[in-house]
Amino acid sequence: MYYPDIRIRSTLAGPWVQTSLFVSSVERFEDSHGATLDAAYRLNHGLTDVAINWAGGLHHAKKSEASGFCYINDIVLGILELLKYHPRVLYIDIDVHHGDGVEEAFYVTDRVMTVSFHKDVGAKAGKYYAVNCPLKSGIDDENYLTIFKPVVEKVIETFRPGAIVLQCGADSLTGDRLGCFNLTVQGTNIPSL
């Protein structure tokens, strides 16, 4: 069951947002975003070295705009939590679409470096702390890693983050209807950096 009369404006999506709100939407938001905040808390307090939120990664939502099937940006909330303990946080986005909501949230700070490997060229040019690598449709594992590894290694060497957040959208895999890359699971297996 959904609320057919609820309409959330989205300039990116056109006159109406792409997805309807359901009765369980609030609970879903609480679960997803709560898991991201819990992951950041655990990292901050040394309770774990790696944390994963399989239901997170809603990187298109912006401060005042739902976008790209995303209503609330759990990644931004998690990074804000990480910034309480880490002077710098690196955000790497390997989804086929630009991580525009995260980039916008941290566009004017030098404490968060955003790196997005995507198909879209984006509306803004990152300056010093936003690295955008638009990729061509059909890119395969070998070409992807040839670009990814040197870029990320140089960013880590230069920025020296205290924490790294990685968004792994599945739409970069071969056959995904929303994507246009030809990556395999092995190709998105991020090498140790």
From TrEMBL:
GO molecular function per UniProt: histone deacetylase activity, hydrolytic mechanism
UniProt GO cellular component terms: nucleus
Pfam families in UniProt: Hist_deacetyl (PF00850)
Biological processes annotated in GO: epigenetic regulation of gene expression
Taxonomy, superkingdom: Eukaryota
InterPro entries registered for this protein in UniProt: HDAC_I/II (IPR003084), HDACs (IPR000286), His_deacetylse_dom (IPR023801), His_deacetylse_dom_sf (IPR037138), Ureohydrolase_dom_sf (IPR023696)
Signal peptide (residue range): none
Keywords: Chromatin regulator, Hydrolase
Listed PANTHER family: HISTONE DEACETYLASE 19, HISTONE DEACETYLASE HDAC1-RELATED
Protein name: histone deacetylase
Lineage: Eukaryota, Sar, Stramenopiles, Oomycota, Saprolegniomycetes
